[in-house]
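Dear colleagues,

As part of the handover before I leave the project, I'm documenting each prediction I ran so the next person doesn't have to rerun anything. This entry is a single chain, and its sequence is reproduced below.
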Amino acid sequence: LQHYGMMNLSGLYYVNSRHRSGSPQDTNRTQLKSTKRTMRRFATLGGLLLAGNTGIAVAFAPQTSHGRTNVSTQLDAAKHSDNQLAGAASLALAAALVLSPMAAFADGQTKEFKLPPIDYSDKQRCALNSSKMGQANAARDKLYDLRECKLSGVNGQEFDLSGVIMSKTDLSKANFREAQFSKGYLRDSNFEEADFTNAIVDRATFKGSSLKGTIFSNAVLTATSFEGADVENADFTDAYIGDFDIRNLCKNPTLKGENPLTGADTRLSANCGPGR
């Protein structure tokens, strides 16, 4: 640390140690070489961290035995050049990250999950509890496990159930109007005739679940997978579904019928008319 100084990546600040010998000219030349090497070494890393920062990398003048010295013209020019190098690296990497054609893999499209064993000793495990920690990141103080629970007809209106794990769970005829299921694992379960009107079910997966007669009217279903789910007689009227997700949903062979409660045509309600 004595020779390399300290570095703060929010601005790439350098505070070099006192040189024990040599003239100020030798000191500046040594500082120049060291600074250029270090700047080049961290230009890429600095670019990543500074991509969203409007500030620019700054190198402070070194200290000598006589206190702070004025920066020499040569060191100042090198500093300007290397600041430009870091700035260029930042812009290039930011553009690569923003314009990259690689698709973001949402939770709802994840193929495999490794789940912990069910804690059957927890007698309160099957109670429906709304999260108080905010749905955006599905944050909870412990795993919310409703696997193999019998909750038919339960009232979960306006509940925040983000991050919940359901498998072989019976939630038929449940009321989930305006509920939140962000990043929900909702596989191999019974949601027949459940009501998700105005609910937020983003980045979730219903793989293998039965959704016969389920209502998703005006629900947010972004990045949610219905692969292998039975959606016969479901109602997707005015649901917000991304183009990629609609294409996958339209390929589901069970997307047919008419909802028994609303009378909506299942396929047309999901905007899967002719040509889709």
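The longest strand covers residues 6-8. The chain has a mean pLDDT of 73.

All the best with the project,
I.
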